[in-house]
Amino acid sequence: MNQNLTKEQKDVLFNKKTEVPFTGKFFNNKEKGIYTCANCNAELFSSDRKYDAHCGWPSFDDVYKEGSIKFVEDTSHNMQRIETVCANCGGHLGHLFDDGPEETTGKRYCINSLSLDFKKYQTE
How buried is 43 (Cβ within 10 angstroms: 0-12 exposed, 13-18 middle, 19+ buried)? Predict the structure, then answer.
């Protein structure tokens, strides 16, 4: 485990908590780069696939690399959802929904900012 994680990050990544909507540091991030797992630095999402879903969390329509995320059935809170976890370390990221942009994948990866870090693209 990354020893620099905050208590809030640990709660999301390892206890499957959810950050308060519209508060995450990456919710309104418009910079270009790669979103990585806050725990293990695995590359998860590209800013090119990020869009505003008006849901309160960073949303993406696809993963950065095939196999970077695992999917787990989640029936907690009397709901039926698909949990997304980092394939490398198993950290909880958020959930996958089928209400994303129809013109792309139709998917919405609804991800907690607390589970992410960001590597900005280097400009010349």
Answer: middle
CATH code for the structural domain at 7-120: 2.170.150.20
Point out the residues that are catalytic: 110
> How are beta strands 81-86 and 43-46 bridged, if at all?
unpaired
Query: How far apart (Å, rounded) are the C-alpha atoms in residues 44 and 63?
Result: 6
Q: What is the pLDDT of residues 44-86, one digit of tens each?
A: 999 999 999 999 999 999 999 999 999 999 988 888 999 999 9
Q: How far apart are CA 80 and CA 78, in angstroms?
A: 7
* Rounded Cα gap, residues 27 and 40, in angstroms: 21
pLDDT of residue 124: 56
Residue written as token pair 């879903």: 53
Q: How many helices (H) and strands (E) does the chain have?
A: 1, 9
Residue 32: pLDDT above 60?
Answer: yes
d(CA 2, CA 77): 29
Asked if residues 9 and 92 have their Cβ atoms less than 8 Å apart, the reply is no
